[in-house]
Write a structure and sequence with these properties.
By secondary structure, the chain is mainly beta. The chain is built from 1 helix and 28 strands. The chain has a single domain (about 5-340), classed as Neuraminidase, CATH 2.120.10. The longest helix has 14 residues, at about 5-20.
Amino acid sequence: MKLKRGAYALGLAGLLAAACGKESAATTAAPAAGAPAATTAGNVGKIERIDPALDALVAPTAAIEKVAGGFKFTEGPLWRPDGTLWFSDVQGNVVRSVTPDGKVTVIIENSGGASNAAPDAFIGSNGMAQAPDGSVWMVQHAARRIVRVAPDHTLTPVVSTFEGKRFNSPNDLVFAKDGALYFTDPPYGLAKQDDDPAKEITFNGVYRFANGQVQALVRDLARPNGLAFSPDYKILYVNNSEAAKNLVMRYDVAADGSLSNGRVLADLTSKVDGLADGLKVDAKGNIYTSGPGGVWVLSPDGKHLGTIQPPEVPANCGWGDDGKTLYMTAVTGVYRVRTLVGR
Protein backbone atom coordinates (compact mmCIF):
# COMPACT_ATOMS: atom_id res chain seq x y z
CA MET A 1 0.00 0.00 0.00
CA LYS A 2 1.46 3.34 -1.02
CA LEU A 3 0.43 6.53 0.72
CA LYS A 4 -0.33 9.56 -1.40
CA ARG A 5 -0.14 11.84 1.64
CA GLY A 6 3.57 11.61 2.37
CA ALA A 7 3.35 13.66 5.55
CA TYR A 8 1.05 11.20 7.27
CA ALA A 9 3.04 8.35 5.79
CA LEU A 10 6.06 9.43 7.81
CA GLY A 11 4.08 9.09 11.02
CA LEU A 12 2.50 5.78 10.11
CA ALA A 13 5.10 4.10 7.93
CA GLY A 14 5.42 1.18 10.30
CA LEU A 15 1.73 0.39 10.20
CA LEU A 16 1.61 0.47 6.43
CA ALA A 17 4.73 -1.65 6.12
CA ALA A 18 2.86 -4.32 8.02
CA ALA A 19 -0.03 -4.04 5.60
CA CYS A 20 2.38 -4.63 2.72
CA GLY A 21 3.54 -7.85 4.31
CA LYS A 22 6.88 -6.55 5.55
CA GLU A 23 8.17 -7.97 8.78
CA SER A 24 10.69 -6.29 11.03
CA ALA A 25 13.67 -8.28 12.22
CA ALA A 26 13.51 -6.51 15.56
CA THR A 27 11.29 -7.57 18.46
CA THR A 28 9.50 -5.70 21.21
CA ALA A 29 11.32 -4.64 24.36
CA ALA A 30 13.14 -7.49 26.06
CA PRO A 31 11.77 -8.78 29.37
CA ALA A 32 13.63 -8.30 32.61
CA ALA A 33 16.51 -10.65 33.30
CA GLY A 34 15.32 -13.92 34.77
CA ALA A 35 11.82 -13.51 33.33
CA PRO A 36 11.95 -14.82 29.75
CA ALA A 37 9.05 -13.90 27.53
CA ALA A 38 6.53 -16.55 26.59
CA THR A 39 4.47 -16.44 23.43
CA THR A 40 1.02 -17.87 22.85
CA ALA A 41 -0.35 -18.29 19.34
CA GLY A 42 -3.91 -17.34 18.49
CA ASN A 43 -6.09 -18.07 15.51
CA VAL A 44 -4.12 -15.25 13.88
CA GLY A 45 -1.11 -13.44 15.27
CA LYS A 46 0.32 -14.11 18.71
CA ILE A 47 0.49 -12.80 22.26
CA GLU A 48 3.91 -12.07 23.71
CA ARG A 49 3.89 -12.59 27.48
CA ILE A 50 6.64 -10.62 29.16
CA ASP A 51 5.40 -10.64 32.75
CA PRO A 52 3.33 -13.34 34.51
CA ALA A 53 0.88 -10.63 35.58
CA LEU A 54 -0.49 -10.62 32.03
CA ASP A 55 -2.14 -13.99 32.66
CA ALA A 56 -4.61 -12.29 35.02
CA LEU A 57 -5.62 -9.88 32.25
CA VAL A 58 -5.41 -12.04 29.11
CA ALA A 59 -5.76 -15.79 29.71
CA PRO A 60 -2.93 -18.04 28.48
CA THR A 61 -5.49 -19.72 26.21
CA ALA A 62 -6.71 -16.45 24.67
CA ALA A 63 -6.72 -16.34 20.87
CA ILE A 64 -6.66 -13.40 18.48
CA GLU A 65 -9.44 -13.55 15.90
CA LYS A 66 -9.93 -11.63 12.67
CA VAL A 67 -13.41 -10.10 12.51
CA ALA A 68 -13.34 -8.44 9.06
CA GLY A 69 -10.89 -7.09 6.50
CA GLY A 70 -10.35 -5.48 3.12
CA PHE A 71 -10.37 -1.86 4.31
CA LYS A 72 -7.87 0.96 3.71
CA PHE A 73 -6.88 2.32 7.14
CA THR A 74 -9.07 1.47 10.12
CA GLU A 75 -9.35 3.61 13.24
CA GLY A 76 -11.66 4.84 16.00
CA PRO A 77 -13.42 1.64 17.21
CA LEU A 78 -16.57 2.28 19.26
CA TRP A 79 -18.95 -0.41 20.55
CA ARG A 80 -22.63 0.44 20.18
CA PRO A 81 -25.66 -0.66 22.23
CA ASP A 82 -27.10 -2.50 19.21
CA GLY A 83 -24.26 -5.02 19.42
CA THR A 84 -22.12 -3.69 16.58
CA LEU A 85 -18.69 -2.06 16.42
CA TRP A 86 -18.42 1.25 14.60
CA PHE A 87 -15.05 2.15 13.13
CA SER A 88 -13.58 4.75 10.78
CA ASP A 89 -11.76 4.06 7.53
CA VAL A 90 -9.61 7.18 7.43
CA GLN A 91 -8.49 6.76 3.82
CA GLY A 92 -11.83 5.39 2.66
CA ASN A 93 -13.60 8.40 4.25
CA VAL A 94 -16.42 6.27 5.66
CA VAL A 95 -17.70 4.95 8.98
CA ARG A 96 -18.62 1.29 8.97
CA SER A 97 -20.26 -1.03 11.47
CA VAL A 98 -19.37 -4.67 11.91
CA THR A 99 -21.23 -7.38 13.79
CA PRO A 100 -19.38 -9.93 15.94
CA ASP A 101 -19.83 -12.47 13.15
CA GLY A 102 -18.22 -10.14 10.58
CA LYS A 103 -21.12 -8.53 8.71
CA VAL A 104 -19.97 -5.10 7.54
CA THR A 105 -22.21 -2.13 6.71
CA VAL A 106 -21.31 1.41 5.59
CA ILE A 107 -23.26 3.78 7.82
CA ILE A 108 -21.71 7.21 7.10
CA GLU A 109 -20.30 8.28 3.72
CA ASN A 110 -17.82 11.20 3.48
CA SER A 111 -17.39 10.88 7.24
CA GLY A 112 -14.45 13.28 7.35
CA GLY A 113 -16.22 16.06 5.52
CA ALA A 114 -16.02 17.47 2.02
CA SER A 115 -12.54 17.52 0.50
CA ASN A 116 -10.68 17.97 -2.78
CA ALA A 117 -7.76 15.89 -1.54
CA ALA A 118 -6.19 13.17 -3.67
CA PRO A 119 -7.66 9.65 -3.48
CA ASP A 120 -6.66 7.69 -0.36
CA ALA A 121 -5.72 10.86 1.53
CA PHE A 122 -6.16 10.74 5.31
CA ILE A 123 -9.22 13.00 5.35
CA GLY A 124 -11.87 10.72 6.83
CA SER A 125 -13.27 10.51 10.33
CA ASN A 126 -11.06 9.11 13.08
CA GLY A 127 -11.89 8.79 16.78
CA MET A 128 -15.42 8.37 18.13
CA ALA A 129 -16.77 8.47 21.68
CA GLN A 130 -20.12 8.07 23.36
CA ALA A 131 -21.27 11.18 25.21
CA PRO A 132 -23.00 11.00 28.62
CA ASP A 133 -26.37 11.43 26.88
CA GLY A 134 -25.69 8.37 24.71
CA SER A 135 -24.97 10.26 21.49
CA VAL A 136 -21.84 9.62 19.45
CA TRP A 137 -19.31 12.39 18.91
CA MET A 138 -16.79 12.02 16.10
CA VAL A 139 -13.74 13.88 14.80
CA GLN A 140 -13.38 14.85 11.14
CA HIS A 141 -9.98 15.28 9.49
CA ALA A 142 -11.07 17.07 6.30
CA ALA A 143 -13.56 19.37 8.03
CA ARG A 144 -11.13 19.85 10.98
CA ARG A 145 -13.85 19.71 13.61
CA ILE A 146 -15.87 17.55 16.01
CA VAL A 147 -19.45 16.60 15.18
CA ARG A 148 -22.38 14.92 16.90
CA VAL A 149 -23.87 11.92 15.10
CA ALA A 150 -27.68 11.82 15.19
CA PRO A 151 -29.66 8.56 15.33
CA ASP A 152 -30.25 8.91 11.57
CA HIS A 153 -26.45 9.38 11.15
CA THR A 154 -26.68 13.03 10.13
CA LEU A 155 -23.83 15.17 11.48
CA THR A 156 -24.05 18.36 13.54
CA PRO A 157 -20.89 20.44 14.16
CA VAL A 158 -20.05 20.91 17.83
CA VAL A 159 -16.64 22.60 17.95
CA SER A 160 -14.25 23.63 15.18
CA THR A 161 -12.13 26.56 16.35
CA PHE A 162 -9.86 27.72 19.15
CA GLU A 163 -9.54 31.46 19.66
CA GLY A 164 -11.01 32.00 16.20
CA LYS A 165 -8.58 29.64 14.44
CA ARG A 166 -9.48 26.33 12.82
CA PHE A 167 -8.14 23.17 14.41
CA ASN A 168 -5.45 21.18 12.60
CA SER A 169 -7.29 17.84 12.38
CA PRO A 170 -8.83 16.58 15.63
CA ASN A 171 -7.81 12.96 16.10
CA ASP A 172 -9.22 11.33 19.23
CA LEU A 173 -11.61 12.26 22.00
CA VAL A 174 -12.84 11.11 25.40
CA PHE A 175 -15.41 12.33 27.92
CA ALA A 176 -14.64 13.06 31.56
CA LYS A 177 -16.96 12.03 34.39
CA ASP A 178 -18.46 15.53 34.51
CA GLY A 179 -19.26 15.43 30.78
CA ALA A 180 -16.38 17.66 29.65
CA LEU A 181 -14.79 16.62 26.35
CA TYR A 182 -11.03 16.15 26.02
CA PHE A 183 -9.49 15.79 22.56
CA THR A 184 -6.20 15.86 20.68
CA ASP A 185 -5.37 17.90 17.58
CA PRO A 186 -2.29 16.73 15.65
CA PRO A 187 -1.77 17.81 12.00
CA TYR A 188 -2.20 14.39 10.35
CA GLY A 189 -5.13 15.50 8.22
CA LEU A 190 -3.12 18.32 6.65
CA ALA A 191 -1.17 17.38 3.51
CA LYS A 192 2.07 18.96 4.73
CA GLN A 193 1.34 18.60 8.45
CA ASP A 194 3.14 21.35 10.41
CA ASP A 195 4.32 22.99 7.18
CA ASP A 196 0.89 23.09 5.58
CA PRO A 197 -0.19 26.64 4.66
CA ALA A 198 -3.71 25.82 5.88
CA LYS A 199 -2.44 25.24 9.45
CA GLU A 200 -3.77 28.07 11.61
CA ILE A 201 -2.79 26.99 15.14
CA THR A 202 0.96 26.96 15.71
CA PHE A 203 0.99 24.07 18.21
CA ASN A 204 -0.54 20.58 18.26
CA GLY A 205 -2.63 20.53 21.39
CA VAL A 206 -4.69 18.64 23.91
CA TYR A 207 -7.96 20.49 24.57
CA ARG A 208 -10.90 20.54 26.94
CA PHE A 209 -14.38 21.57 25.77
CA ALA A 210 -17.02 22.35 28.40
CA ASN A 211 -19.86 24.84 28.77
CA GLY A 212 -19.24 26.06 25.24
CA GLN A 213 -15.64 27.00 25.96
CA VAL A 214 -12.42 25.48 24.56
CA GLN A 215 -9.25 25.40 26.65
CA ALA A 216 -5.80 24.39 25.42
CA LEU A 217 -4.37 22.21 28.21
CA VAL A 218 -1.18 20.82 26.62
CA ARG A 219 0.87 22.60 23.95
CA ASP A 220 4.26 20.88 24.08
CA LEU A 221 3.60 17.48 22.46
CA ALA A 222 4.64 17.19 18.83
CA ARG A 223 2.00 14.58 17.93
CA PRO A 224 -0.71 14.23 20.62
CA ASN A 225 -2.95 11.34 19.66
CA GLY A 226 -4.95 8.76 21.64
CA LEU A 227 -6.14 9.58 25.15
CA ALA A 228 -8.01 7.87 27.98
CA PHE A 229 -8.84 8.41 31.65
CA SER A 230 -7.93 6.20 34.58
CA PRO A 231 -10.95 4.49 36.20
CA ASP A 232 -11.19 7.22 38.87
CA TYR A 233 -10.76 10.02 36.29
CA LYS A 234 -7.83 11.46 38.25
CA ILE A 235 -5.27 10.68 35.53
CA LEU A 236 -5.39 11.39 31.81
CA TYR A 237 -3.14 9.33 29.57
CA VAL A 238 -2.11 10.90 26.25
CA ASN A 239 -0.07 9.23 23.54
CA ASN A 240 2.58 11.12 21.60
CA SER A 241 2.84 9.45 18.18
CA GLU A 242 6.28 10.76 17.27
CA ALA A 243 8.81 8.26 15.94
CA ALA A 244 11.67 9.81 17.93
CA LYS A 245 9.58 10.27 21.09
CA ASN A 246 7.01 7.47 20.99
CA LEU A 247 5.53 8.08 24.43
CA VAL A 248 2.62 7.36 26.72
CA MET A 249 2.21 10.49 28.84
CA ARG A 250 0.43 10.78 32.18
CA TYR A 251 -1.22 13.94 33.55
CA ASP A 252 -2.92 14.66 36.87
CA VAL A 253 -6.49 15.94 36.46
CA ALA A 254 -7.57 18.70 38.86
CA ALA A 255 -11.10 19.26 40.13
CA ASP A 256 -11.55 22.09 37.59
CA GLY A 257 -10.51 19.80 34.73
CA SER A 258 -7.07 21.29 34.21
CA LEU A 259 -3.99 19.09 33.75
CA SER A 260 -0.66 19.20 35.58
CA ASN A 261 2.46 17.22 36.37
CA GLY A 262 2.86 15.77 32.89
CA ARG A 263 5.42 12.97 32.80
CA VAL A 264 6.33 9.92 30.75
CA LEU A 265 4.55 6.75 31.86
CA ALA A 266 6.17 4.57 29.19
CA ASP A 267 8.68 5.19 26.41
CA LEU A 268 7.78 3.00 23.42
CA THR A 269 10.43 4.41 21.11
CA SER A 270 11.71 1.50 19.03
CA LYS A 271 12.86 0.44 15.58
CA VAL A 272 9.89 -1.91 15.44
CA ASP A 273 6.83 -0.84 13.42
CA GLY A 274 4.06 0.77 15.46
CA LEU A 275 3.34 4.06 17.19
CA ALA A 276 1.71 4.98 20.49
CA ASP A 277 -1.57 5.86 18.80
CA GLY A 278 -4.92 4.81 20.31
CA LEU A 279 -5.28 3.53 23.88
CA LYS A 280 -7.85 2.28 26.37
CA VAL A 281 -7.82 1.54 30.11
CA ASP A 282 -9.39 -1.44 31.90
CA ALA A 283 -11.34 -1.44 35.16
CA LYS A 284 -8.17 -2.07 37.18
CA GLY A 285 -6.26 0.79 35.58
CA ASN A 286 -4.10 -1.20 33.16
CA ILE A 287 -3.38 0.52 29.85
CA TYR A 288 -3.79 -1.08 26.41
CA THR A 289 -2.04 1.03 23.80
CA SER A 290 -1.00 0.56 20.22
CA GLY A 291 2.77 0.47 19.96
CA PRO A 292 5.70 -1.33 18.37
CA GLY A 293 4.55 -4.73 17.14
CA GLY A 294 0.98 -4.58 18.45
CA VAL A 295 -1.09 -3.52 21.47
CA TRP A 296 1.13 -3.11 24.52
CA VAL A 297 -0.41 -3.99 27.87
CA LEU A 298 0.98 -1.76 30.62
CA SER A 299 0.38 -1.85 34.36
CA PRO A 300 -0.81 1.41 36.00
CA ASP A 301 2.82 2.17 36.87
CA GLY A 302 3.92 1.70 33.26
CA LYS A 303 5.40 -1.80 33.41
CA HIS A 304 5.24 -3.64 30.09
CA LEU A 305 3.35 -6.87 30.76
CA GLY A 306 3.03 -8.14 27.21
CA THR A 307 2.06 -7.35 23.63
CA ILE A 308 -1.02 -8.51 21.73
CA GLN A 309 0.17 -8.96 18.16
CA PRO A 310 -2.39 -9.41 15.37
CA PRO A 311 -0.90 -9.92 11.89
CA GLU A 312 -1.19 -6.19 11.18
CA VAL A 313 0.04 -3.49 13.57
CA PRO A 314 -2.99 -1.85 15.25
CA ALA A 315 -3.60 1.88 15.24
CA ASN A 316 -6.30 1.75 17.91
CA CYS A 317 -8.36 -0.48 20.17
CA GLY A 318 -11.61 -0.44 22.11
CA TRP A 319 -13.79 -2.57 24.38
CA GLY A 320 -16.75 -4.46 22.95
CA ASP A 321 -19.25 -7.29 23.45
CA ASP A 322 -19.80 -7.49 27.22
CA GLY A 323 -16.89 -5.11 27.83
CA LYS A 324 -14.23 -7.80 28.12
CA THR A 325 -13.38 -8.18 24.43
CA LEU A 326 -10.65 -5.91 23.06
CA TYR A 327 -11.29 -4.99 19.43
CA MET A 328 -8.30 -3.74 17.44
CA THR A 329 -8.37 -1.64 14.27
CA ALA A 330 -5.23 -2.63 12.39
CA VAL A 331 -4.69 -1.05 8.96
CA THR A 332 -6.85 -3.18 6.62
CA GLY A 333 -8.53 -5.37 9.24
CA VAL A 334 -10.46 -5.50 12.50
CA TYR A 335 -9.35 -8.06 15.12
CA ARG A 336 -10.34 -9.01 18.66
CA VAL A 337 -9.12 -10.89 21.70
CA ARG A 338 -10.98 -11.91 24.84
CA THR A 339 -9.69 -10.42 28.10
CA LEU A 340 -10.43 -11.18 31.76
CA VAL A 341 -10.94 -7.65 33.13
CA GLY A 342 -12.12 -5.23 30.45
CA ARG A 343 -13.63 -1.86 31.13
